[in-house]
Amino acid sequence: MTQDDKTKTLDIQPDQGRRKFLNTAALVGLSGAGLSVGLSACKKEEAAAPAGTATHAAAGSAGGVHLKPGELDTYYGFWSGGHTGDFRVLGLPSGRELLRVPCFTPDALVGWGITNESKKVMGTKPDGSLKYTVGDTHHTHASYKDGNYDGRYAWINDKINSRIARIRLDYFVCDKITELPNVQGFHGIFPDKRDPVDRKINYTTRVFCGSEFSIPLPNSGAGMEDTKKYRSLFSCVDAETMEVRWQVMIDGNCDLVATSYDGKLAATNQYNTEMGVHYEDMMSVERDACAFFNIARIEAAVKAGKTRTFGDSKVPVVDGTRAANSDPKTALVAYVSVPKNPHGVNASPDGKYFICAGKLSPTATVIELSKVLDWFDGKLDNPDKAIVAEVEIGLGPLHTAFDGRGNAYTTLFLDSQVVKWNVDAAIKFHGGDSKAQYVVDRLDVHYQPGHINASQSETQFADGKWLAVGCKFSKDRYLPVGPMHAENEQLIDISGDKMVLVADHPVRPEPHDFIIFKRDLLRPKQVYSLDEFPLAVKDPKESGVFRNGKKVTVKITSQAPSFSLREFKLKVGDEVTLILTNLDKVEDLTHGFAIPKYNVNFIVNPQETASVTFKADKPGVFWCYCTHFCHALHLEMRSRMIVEA
Ligand code: CUK
Ligand code: CUA
Ligand code: CA
């Protein structure tokens, strides 16, 4: 042990006290949630598998996390930003943040929410202002082909205003946002992996969206006290058009979403089958559910017109409630019962199982997908018989990742641990083999982990190298910077039998979910194509001020270190649309365009075009300047906007 490691061990000591304190506090908060059972159960197990205390002293074989200057990461990580409303790109294993892609909320760096192009994607009110300026991103997943990521798109949810955004992965920009009708609290999201009927379609064509909060349908002021009639809809969005194809009305709520590799099933875990409106109502029964959607049957029902609509929405809605789906031969939805207030449903990379984490139950439930299909085929009399394991793993299980070697890794929020457990052994244990040791390892994390994911875990090519854990509390892990703490994304080497904690990465609050995949699955473009932009000013000679009464169009190009117009003249009262094309073709040569006192700033990347519209309401001279350092004469790169009274 080196001196450094000793210090590290000493540093860890005080955290034991904090760990206990927070656990006790959390347990008191949840008294009556049936957790005492879990506590004693876990104590027993700890003797067999003591909590991991490994530090970086015992590195596994996945490789170092410290990259030398100039070295590139071997994995991409896509992270949600939480209520910053963005999508983030990290390099792994270094943990370096490479990019934030603004989606739902304005971003001052690129001018998202300022340019006309971004406002069109975000959505505007009749007066041209943004419809929404807040967002809350939780879950991001990418498009599939042949069971692996194909590098076309990623999608991300906005929980606050129930919007889904698509990110084009050639340019890493958000190109479409759709607001889901008649839902609130859009939370879980997952693309399908192939078509359930047309077997030639072996790639993503649909994205499924769960809605966490139940509301009156339609939510237009009637029936607000009749809470038993509140409903949630499960939505299917077309991956290409981004239009909502159909929705399913269900009993209970949706939380997270998973999809099967054969395209036949999607599922959402439900923590509020009680359909309660207060938290004590939501945790009043011992078992909730995981609802399985039979995609082919739902699409057939939509085609056959067995649908209805709510309010102004034209989206067809099929009936997925329990009462309408008791006959397996015609059912669109199967409700598999799982313990109390589950959180997280994750598909194993072998395509066989979905795993629901218990949250208020110290268990994980393993559901075999072929058996769910058997129920739909009338070969199984009860969908609950698709449960092949339900085993205790620790307190507050939330999300699960996989290593492709048969092991699952589940976050334990209350225990502040990750538990590694073997799925086959859990199935054996559940089947009566009391000697089956399914818990393989436990590791302390810092602290209160939520999401977890492993490299390639959400594909059929899970490679079992890296595990990242999103810890909701960082407490003493970083220099204090006042009351708000960074979140702590921890990196764990899972290439060996024991998990080894190798790095802490601070992140700005507050990401939830993320995915990690090999870098060669993406080939982003470094320069735009002028043809992407209908308004492109393709030649500096096209620049100028074009007047049509009060409507004025200003066309400008940029080529370091100058703008094509050294000055341009406007009159007070003009309604101005300014179009800027960056004609530089050199990689990384970005220009900015700021107009003082007019609240305008945006960037144009190589060969990109962007436009802004504003009213010339102040007379004077305004030095429009380049905000993005581009050249030795960057400071001199300006254009004089002259507004005449
Ligand atoms: S939820 Cu955040 S830790 Cu929105 Cu995915 Cu589980
Ligand atoms: Cu152009 Cu700085
Ligand atoms: Ca419940």
How many individual β-strands? 40
Q: Ligands bound here?
A: [4Cu:2S] cluster, dinuclear copper ion, calcium ion
Number of helices: 7
Name the CATH superfamily assignment of the domain at 530-644.
Cupredoxins -  blue copper proteins
- Largest sheet, strands/sense/barrel: 5 strands, mixed
Shape summary: globular
Indicate the radius of gyration in whole angstroms.
Answer: 27 Å
Provide the helix percentage.
Answer: 10-25%
Q: Provide the β-strand percentage band.
A: 35-45%
Question: What's the overall average pLDDT, rounded?
Answer: 92
End-to-end separation in angstroms reads: 75 Å
| CATH architecture call of the domain at 530-644 | Sandwich
- In spatial order, strands of the major sheet run 1-25-24-23-22
Classified by CATH, the class of the domain at 530-644 is: Mainly Beta
Given as residue ranges, the uncertain stretches (5+ residues, pLDDT < 50) are 1-18, 20-59
Structural class: mainly beta
CATH topology of the domain at 530-644: Immunoglobulin-like
Outline of the structure:
By secondary structure, this protein is mainly beta. It has a domain of 115 residues: Cupredoxins -  blue copper proteins (Immunoglobulin-like, Sandwich). The protein contains seven helices and 40 strands.
Please provide a written account of the structure.
The protein is mainly β and 645 residues long. The protein has a domain of 115 residues: Cupredoxins -  blue copper proteins (Immunoglobulin-like, Sandwich), CATH 2.60.40.420. The chain contains 7 helices and 40 strands. The strands form 10 sheets. It has a 5-stranded mixed β-sheet with strand order 1-25-24-23-22. The longest helix is centred in the N-terminal third of the chain and has 27 residues. The termini are far apart. The chain binds [4Cu:2S] cluster, dinuclear copper ion and calcium ion. The site of [4Cu:2S] cluster has 11 residues, from β22 and β26.
